[in-house]
Write a structure and sequence with these properties.
This protein has about 325 residues and is mainly α. About 65% of the residues lie in helices and about 5% in strands. The strands form two sheets. The chain has a four-stranded mixed sheet. The chain has a two-stranded antiparallel sheet with strand order 5-6.
Length: about 325
């Protein structure tokens, strides 16, 4: 456990550094799925590692050991974790869980707000045109979602550019991009190291919708022109949390649309999947080692209680003293 418990933490650091760079070079659809899956796995690994480190220190408290009927001495000898490390892990775990809870409440409120706004919009079609001179265009997730465009935005675009803009927003709704956003925001709240991944994820979603619009319209230049004009028109009215064609790094999106479609690369995805598999395997090994440590400490306490009649006898079902747990050849001795 001394090494394996730290592997998911190191994988999280590696992902936060490399994933944003690699994702921008991949096709946006696979990149979004890879970023979402990688963020979820690494966030769980992050929380799991912190929980194991915190528990190892928590288990060494005499009052806790007495309730669990295990030996603190045997536990410390089996896998000594400095109380400072355990305390830091405990604080980090509490902060991560608190951040996750706050982010979850915010996301639920945002989705409920979007559904209410969808119901308040005029008409019952997918497209809602607002009588507003300010240029706006965004997608509201709901059941079903709605595309909101203002008259001010429509006046800034030509016919084919309007078609490209609507195709872009329709792709956001069709592929449920708000669920990707929710996953990235929750994982970034649980693990601050994943904030670069969440930022890159927003750009990848806009690129995904750009490519879908280009395929629908059949002209990448038209989509690039629509994105550029919409961004210039709404420069003084940021899109906020909505899925809007003016989101992300617009100059980079325009350059990507003026270039050929991105090639499909599988090697970065395979490497990322292998890295996540290592993280999961290490966390499983650390959890198994933690379980064996507790069994060994209970075995040591059992033997000590039998040797000293003055101590309380171990409760039934806590491992017979006649057969040591796996990895032990006697009380307090671990063969790892």
């Amino acid at each position: 456990m001394a090494v394996s418990v730290y592997v998911p933490l190191m994988v999280t650091v590696v992902l936060s550094v490399l994933a944003p760079r690699l994702a921008r070079r991949l096709a946006p659809g696979p990149a979004a799925w890879a970023l979402a899956g990688g963020a979820l796995v690494t966030a769980l690994g992050w929380l799991g590692s912190l929980a194991l480190l915190a528990f190892t220190g928590f288990a060494q408290i005499p009052e806790v050991a007495e309730e669990g009927r295990w030996s603190v001495t045997a536990l410390r000898a089996d896998d000594p974790v400095y109380l400072t490390v355990s305390a830091v892990a405990t604080v980090a775990l509490l902060a991560s869980l608190s951040g996750l809870a706050v982010a979850a409440v915010r996301q639920v409120r945002h989705l409920l707000w979007a559904r209410r706004e969808c119901a308040r919009l005029p008409g019952d079609l997918e497209l809602a045109v607002l009588d507003d001179a300010s240029p706006h265009a965004f997608a509201l997730p709901g059941a079903p979602g709605r595309i909101v465009v203002s008259h001010g935005m429509l006046r800034c675009l030509g016919d084919t550019e309007r078609e490209a803009l609507l195709a872009h927003e329709r792709a956001h709704l069709r592929d449920r991009h708000h669920l990707f956003q929710t996953a990235w925001r929750l994982t970034a709240a649980a693990c601050p190291l994943l904030r670069p991944v969440a930022g890159t994820g927003g750009f990848v979603l806009e690129r995904w919708a750009d490519e879908a619009a280009a395929e629908r319209v059949g002209d990448r230049t038209v989509v690039a022109r629509a994105v550029g004009r919409a961004a210039l028109a709404s420069a003084k009215a940021p899109a906020g949390d909505s899925l809007a064609a003016t989101g992300g790094a617009v100059p980079q999106r325009v350059r990507a649309l003026l270039a050929p479609p991105p090639p499909k690369r599988t090697l970065p995805l395979v490497m990322g999947a292998a890295l996540l598999a290592v993280s999961c395997a290490s966390l499983a090994e650390a959890a198994s080692d933690s379980e064996h440590m507790i069994e060994g400490a209970q075995f040591a306490a059992c033997v000590t209680a039998l040797k000293d009649p003055g101590l309380p006898s171990p409760p039934p079902g806590h491992g017979p003293c006649g057969r040591p747990p796996r990895g032990h050849d006697g009380p307090g001795r671990h063969l790892r």
